[in-house]
Amino acid sequence: MENSLENVLTITNLNKSISGQKIVDNVSLQIKEGDIYGFLGPNGAGKTTTLRMIMQLVFPDSGEIFISNKSVAKNAIQALSKVGSIIENPTFYLHLTAFQNLKLSAILSLETIDNARIHEVLTIVGLSHVKEKRVKTFSLGMKQRLGLANALLGHPRLIILDEPTNGVDPQGLRELKVIIKKLAAKEHITFLISSHMLREMDGLCHKAAFIQRGKIVEHGEIPSLMKKYHVSNLEDLFFACIEEEK
């Protein structure tokens, strides 16, 4: 079954240097339909730069990125048309309501997104009851869920989340995990989630790549990796991979 699933995202030998410093060093990833894939490592490891290259916010020095077998470099509009993302912090107009912010995104979108879809995504992320409240009144966890709603507007096949748990309280974290798992299982949406907060990713991702100083040091299915390194959580797994690499 696993081998029959489509590769939603394929990254091959991706490299990026900034001011003479190697930020991303020969990174390769293969992410299949329905994966909740963790891209895990410390701050400054190259995670956000990699995600920004996927979204063509930064251009790689070399390497290839394919989304659903379409080249991002050669056909960006088509490749990225079914990708939703939150790169760094979600940004909204704080004086507008949740609904108004999503309506503005819908108007600016290349796709036709009606009010029914806006109501639908607000319901999916559990914010329908506060859709008429101004975003300035939202907690950080609610803003993250609104960001996820925004990423869902265009019926994406792939959603990229950069550090989505930063500053989110335990209740907000739990709610976010439940939503992501449900979307992956029921809607077959693929997630690529970067984080340096490994403890908070426990129980969410079932596959991961660990990155350190721009290089992938290990990747694969998390249960198999934990068995290989004789550990029981992501934080211990990361440090075991780092020790193995030395």
From TrEMBL:
Gene3D superfamilies named among the record's database cross-references: P-loop containing nucleotide triphosphate hydrolases (3.40.50.300)
SMART domains: AAA
Highest rank taxon of the organism: Bacteria
Keywords, sorted A to Z: ATP-binding, Nucleotide-binding, Transport
Residues making up the signal peptide according to the UniProt record: none
InterPro entries cross-referenced by the UniProt entry: AAA+_ATPase, ABC_transporter-like_ATP-bd, ABC_transporter-like_CS, P-loop_NTPase
Domain ABC transporter: 9-238
Family: Belongs to the ABC transporter superfamily.
Protein name per its UniProtKB record: ABC transporter
Organism the protein comes from: Candidatus Enterococcus willemsii
